[in-house]
Design brief:
Elements: H1 20-28, H2 33-47, H3 51-63, H4 69-75, H5 79-91, E1 95-98, E2 105-108
């Protein structure tokens, strides 16, 4: 049959964040349990955080670490608002703080 285009349904990958099948497939794929758990946990972290937190986490991921000045420039949020969000991320153990005062910086755990 010439000129007939067959369309197939896209395959379901099960890679949705927070999905039970996602963690099972990661485990089944041969990733070590710890790494698979970390991937699922980070996916859940992203799913339930405010937009500003996601921007901060992305900034830290891209650069490896961040002071307060960097995310202020990128997000346009006020310095005090960013401090509150950074403290929240540190308390929830998504980021870790190194140093004190003006010399402090934040990194992913």
């Amino acid at each position: 049959m010439e000129g007939v285009v067959k369309r197939s349904k896209p395959k379901a990958t099960g890679r949705r964040v927070g999905n039970a099948s996602c963690s099972f497939q990661l485990y089944k794929s041969g990733l070590p349990r710890r790494l698979a758990a970390k991937v699922v946990r980070e996916g859940l972290v992203i799913a339930f955080r405010p937009e500003l937190d996601l921007q901060i986490i992305d900034y830290v991921r891209q650069r490896g670490r961040a002071t307060i000045a960097g995310p202020v420039r990128v997000t346009g949020a006020s310095r005090n608002t960013l401090k509150d969000h950074l403290c929240s991320l540190v308390e929830k153990q998504h980021l870790t703080r190194h140093g004190t005062g003006k010399g402090s910086w934040y990194a992913l755990l």
